[in-house]
Write a structure and sequence with these properties.
This protein has twelve helices and three strands; from the N terminus they run βαααβαααβαααααα. By secondary structure, it is mainly α. It has a single domain, classed as Rhopdopsin 7-helix transmembrane proteins. Strands 2-1-3 form a three-stranded mixed beta sheet. α1 crosses α11 and α1 packs across α12. It is globular and about 60 Å long.
Length: 311
């Protein structure tokens, strides 16, 4: 069909995760718990780091910004998914769909770059400890955060600029709980092969390059840590384990999606749920529960609140 700028589709129909009422209630209970825990956990991290002067290092500055991105990621699609469990006809407007695509790629792209910045921070702290304070300045950390947001937004805009102008004049059903870019493009009334390749290169390149950079960085760091036998090295190893766990769980589904972006399997829908709903929970669970400084700051803040209430 020849390309046309006329699009008669004003909304998309989301098929959701399940048709069974019992399953939808079960999913609502599970994912609402994960959602609330993710949001409150990341807010807690921001409050703890902001209120404790001992957590004023670059690592915690970056961790606080990671929590902010995770809060944003928790709220762009999950609340609608939870409400749709109780709606028979699940729809999203064309503008709402494009907005979800924009936020999804913005937040994911930003988080990828921020994880690379956190790996660089650990690399300098462990491999070049004497130069850490002169290299990892607050100015550099702010630059890292700005770059991460800029890359995420540019990455998203590069996709959206082409997607918005596609003609949608036929089917409008998406076998998902949110607007996933490959699924939306497949509904366009034109040949989108070239655009599919562009998306594969764009998203695949940024995710794979960030993942390789992280793997190389952490490999060098682990080799450096293994050569030491001090207690400080044990603490560093514990921190690294948390970082590597988050990297694998975050990048695993992402890389999988862009290896076969336009060939969907039934498991893809549930991996999308994990990627969108569950990954924001990794920060408070993996980083915080394994970090003694954060747990100590939490106890200090809790004791201070208890004393304030009792007085």
């Amino acid at each position: 069909m020849a390309h046309t700028n006329e699009s008669i589709v004003s909304e998309f129909v989301l098929q959701g995760l399940a048709n069974s009422w019992k399953l939808q209630v079960f999913f609502f209970a599970i994912f609402s718990t994960v959602y609330v825990t993710s949001v409150l956990g990341n807010i807690m991290i921001i409050v703890i780091i902001s209120s404790d002067s001992r957590l004023n290092s670059p690592m915690y500055f970056l961790l606080r910004n990671l929590s902010f991105i995770d809060i944003c990621q928790s709220n762009f699609a999950t609340p609608k998914m939870l409400m749709d469990f109780f709606v028979e006809h699940k729809t999203i407007s064309f503008k709402g769909c494009m907005t979800q695509i924009f936020f999804l790629h913005s937040f994911v792209g930003s988080e990828m770059m921020l994880l690379v910045a956190m790996a660089y921070d650990r690399f300098i702290a462990i491999c070049k400890p004497l130069h850490y304070s002169t290299i990892m300045t607050r100015k550099l950390c702010i630059i890292f955060v700005c770059i991460s947001w800029a890359v995420g937004i540019l990455h998203s805009v590069s996709h959206l600029a082409f997607t918005v102008s596609l003609p949608f004049c036929g089917p409008n059903e998406l076998d998902s709980f949110l607007c996933d870019l490959p699924l939306v493009i497949e509904l366009a009334c034109m040949d989108t092969y070239e655009m599919e390749i562009m998306i594969l290169i764009n998203s695949g390149l940024i995710s794979l390059s960030c993942f390789l950079a992280l793997i190389i960085s952490y490999t060098i760091i682990l080799i450096t840590v293994q050569r030491r036998s001090s207690s400080g090295s044990s603490k560093a190893l514990s921190t690294l384990t948390a970082h590597i766990t988050v990297v694998i769980l975050f990048f695993g589904p992402c890389i999988y999606f862009y290896i076969w972006p336009f060939s969907r399997l039934p498991v893809d829908k549930f991996l999308s749920v994990f990627y969108t709903v569950c990954t924001p929970l990794l920060n408070p669970l993996v980083y915080s529960l394994r970090n003694e400084d954060v747990k100590s700051a939490l106890r200090k803040l809790r004791n201070h609140r208890v004393k304030t209430w009792t007085n």
